[in-house]
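Subject: mismatched residue count in predicted assembly?

I count 399 residues in my input, but I want to confirm that the predicted structure covers every chain. Input:
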Amino acid sequence: MPPDPRGRSEPAASNGIPDIIKDMSAEVVDSNPYSRLMALQRMGIVENYESIRDFSVAIVGIGGVGSVAAEMLTRCGIGRLLLYDYDSVELANMNRLFFRPDQVGMTKTDAAVQTLSDINPDVILELFLEHTTVKGFETFVESLKRKSSRMSAHCVDLVLSCVDNYEARMVVNQACNELSQTWMESGVSEDAVSGHIQLLIPGETACFACAPPLVVASGVDERTLKREGVCAASLPTTMGVVAGLLVQNALKYLLKFGKCLPVLHIFSPSLLFQGYNSLKDFFPTMEMKPNPQCSNAACLERQREYILAKPARDAAIKAKVDAEASSKVTGPIHVDNEWNISVVDDSEGQSSHSDISDALPQGLVRELPSADGYPLEEPGPSFDDLDELRRQLEALNAA
Ligand SMILES: [Zn+2]
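Triage response: the counts match. Full output below for your records.
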């Protein structure tokens, strides 16, 4: 029997809270909460923005990243959110976004529903307390399979993991491998200055057990790393960046915009893992293929299925590419050119620089420093070959 969610948002009362809106409108009026989102469609970024209401997203862990991700998806008008967390709101959480001091003592899921249903009563919210215990795991798997009574077509479309420990991630990994469910993993480091997101498509990309984190691969028990009395650091900035990256990729995945590969999913392989180092503003990316020796049996099963389906998948991709190529428009994109806009050749633009006069633009009385007044740097010695460079370095070291 499918488990009942513990709660669900009720239609908002008429105390200044918006009413439920049946259809998303693109009408540009101050009272329309969706006008700026529907503009994505008008501007050609998203083909069908309103389809966001057909999607169900599960967020596991409603902490510093998960709560912000939930708010972003709620404001974007997602159809249904399933929220999982066993924890309560504490004053120690106030350095992060989302929760408020008056919510201290409430469960994070209850507090989240209170805020999210006020922001957008159109979103269906379902709450679950636990997913890591044995019973919790069964409930978790069932909840991902269950369709909403208000949204007939879809089970969960995407799972976002926003938990803070390895064990909880492995539970999400197990459930998603068993269900062949695409998910995205996120995390923020204990020193609060770096983070990552990762896309996991069972069978196609590495699962969480295919490439365990270094600490796990080296055989160290993660729990022994948590020193008594030493709490992990956290910054609302890093968590906000990671939540933003996570939800941006979730939106691209669901609404199919951004870089679209013929592999029928929207990520370039190099974007399967995205890191973030805030100290250097560095975003390393890497491709993570599944490990044929993965310890997770369900992962191996999904890998086999993926390989078996390859010929049919390749044929479908080829047919799609051929169809697109044959339907390509060869004429001008815009027949009318009311404003006489023309494309200027880059080289033409560069050559016109020599025509710039010394006269100051109208209204500008002085220009400092004059660009022409800078002495040109003397060109340094050039090294035509490596031998010459090596000789010079050796001479320097010998001195
Ligand atoms: Zn695996």
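Strands lie at 56-60, 80-84, 124-128, 158-161, 183-188, 194-200, 273-277, 285-286. Marking this ticket as 'not a bug'.
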